[in-house]
Amino acid sequence: MDIKVLIIDDEPQIRTLLSRIISLEGYNVLRAENINSAKKQISSNQPDIILCDVLLPDGNGIDIVPELKSMIPDGEIIMLTAHGNIADGVKSIKNGAYDYLTKGDDNNRIIPMLSNAAEKIKLKKRVDKLQSLIKKEYTFDSIIGDSRLLKNAVDLAKKVAPTDAAVLLTGETGTGKEVFATAIHQASNRKNKNFVAVNCGALSHELLESELFGYKAGAFTGATKDKIGLFEQADKGTIFLDEVGEMPIELQVKLLRALEAGEFIPVGDTITKKVDVRIITATNKDLKEAIKNNEFREDLFYRLSVFSIELPPLRERENDIVTLAQYFLNAFASKMNKSITGMEDSFVDAIKKYSWKGNIRELRNTIERCVIIASDEKLNVRDLPLEIQMSQDDKINMLDLASVEKMHITKMLKYTGGNKTEAARLMKIGLTTLYRKMEEYGIH
After folding, report:
1. In the chain, how many domains are there?
2. How far is CA 21 from the centre of its chain?
3. Spatial contact of 79 and 101, defined as CB atoms under 8 Å apart
4. Which of 78, 200, 234, 440 shows the greatest Cβ crowding within 10 Å of its Cβ?
5. Residue 380 belongs to domain spanning
């Protein structure tokens, strides 16, 4: 990263000396003899650091620090004071300067101070870039795809996001329900407060209750101190209950009260706690069918489904499959430092024909695996798991065991880099058997 340093001083000798010292350290140096010319330099060249004299022909350098800082909000200003005037230095820092130097006496401090200021600027820019990436990751911009069904779902989510309405996200496993939930939160008025998530199907009744509502010390064996629940953590923010259809029906009563009254009682406590929480839920279960089977409360369903959004399965977004695959390919290739530029036509045909029952999550995992084992510049059909290859290859007769066996052996040899001993071990056959089958199928 090139750092630009602007020197503002009305004395030509000082400008020349400082320019020589600073440029030898690799900095790009700009010069200005007064405030007016300095502003023109800032507007056209956007320096990162300004070295500014206190006494200038058209004004006092200390007084214009706030204005200069507003012109380079990510930059730093170092003041040049005369005769060790500490009062000027202190006032400069109060006005927003990074530090100050005494002309003539602090020449040895110039480079270390510039270096520290430059590091601060670089760190801030890295943090800003990271925050920008994180923000994008959790907004609607992170939802990839151009299919009509997906765009409809995104449009609905954008409309409901600014409200406090409860949202129920439905759809198959792996369709991106948590991504939608976080995007809705980030587009809401609660975005600066907590977003907390829990998978209701991953915990037992007792554990889920204590996770959601917390507990009082002594409520049960092992509860040695009070625990704050997720509802309390999400106060003024959003709570996301994934797989809400798996929640035990006994716990649904407590959840309903928390939603309707905005209050709950932690496990083992007697004191009611108040919260202001926006709720987003998700399920791949048919909740209306669950209601008929007495597995889900009807009143809770209507409370959760004030605004429902169905997320389409990947097989109904055929064009998005390739877009998502390329996105995951770029991400994993970069992460693994592999030079993989794209996908062969046969690979694209294969992933478009496959049903993707696990949807986006399954596609992501598949592409990651392909990038790991790929040895060419482009992913090809041989990099795919065997079940995907077989599902799309019209040349393979699924009743022809020999064809399937040949493909499997070829795949395993590629996976092991030609190591026949390892391939035989993975296929759980003898090495002699492997050699015989390779000869039989003409595999070299």
Report:
1. 3
2. 42
3. yes
4. 234
5. 315-441
**60: part of which helix (H) or strand (E)?**
strand 59-60
The two tokens of residue 414 are 């590629």
Residue with tokens 């022809």: 400
Q: What is the token pair recorded at 421?
A: 């001993």
Q: How far apart, in whole angstroms, are the C-alpha atoms of residue 169 and residue 210?
A: 24
Nearest one of 351, 342, 422, 344 to 385, comparing CA atoms: 351
What confidence tens digit (pLDDT) does each residue in 192-251 have? 899 999 999 888 888 899 999 998 888 888 778 888 899 999 999 999 999 999 999 999
pLDDT digits (tens, 9 = 90+) for 350-388: 999 899 999 999 999 999 999 998 988 999 988 888 788
The CATH number assigned to the domain holding 422 equals 1.10.8.60
**How confident is residue 1, by pLDDT bands cut at 50, 70 and 90?**
low
In a shared domain, residues 307 and 319: no
Residues 105 and 247 both lie in one domain = no
pLDDT at 220: 82
Burial call 208-245: b when 16+ CB within 10 Å, e when fewer? bbbbbbbbbeebeeeeeeebebbbbbbbebbbbbbbbb
Smallest CA-to-CA distance from 58 within 35, 78, 79 is with: 35
Please say which residue of 312, 336, 364 terminates a domain: 312
Q: Do 179 and 43 share a structural domain?
A: no
Query: What pLDDT band is residue 397 in, cutting at 50, 70 and 90?
Result: very low
- Say yes or no: 155 and 255 in one domain: yes
Count of other CB atoms within 10 angstroms of residue 440: 12
- The verdict on 146 and 128 lying in the same domain is no
Q: Measuring CA to CA, how many Å separate 6 from each of 70, 102, 155?
A: 15, 17, 48
pTM of whole model > 0.70? no
Give 129-155 pLDDT, tens digit per residue: 655 555 556 788 889 999 999 999 999
Neighbours of 284 (CB within 10 A): 19
- Four-residue CA torsion sign, 174, 176, 178, 179: positive
Element (H, E) at 57: none
- Is the domain of 430 the same as that of 324? yes
Q: Which residues pair with residue 79 across a beta bridge? A: 52, 100
Of 85, 109, 134, the residue that ends a domain is: 134
Question: What pLDDT sits at residue 85?
Answer: 67
Q: Verify that 216 and 237 share a domain, yes or no.
A: yes
CATH of the domain at 307: 3.40.50.300
CATH of the domain at 103: 3.40.50.2300
Cα(186)–Cα(189) distance, integer angstroms: 8
| E strands in 154-199 | 167-170, 195-199
Q: Is 157 exposed, middle or buried (0-12, 13-18, 19+ CB in 10 A)?
A: buried
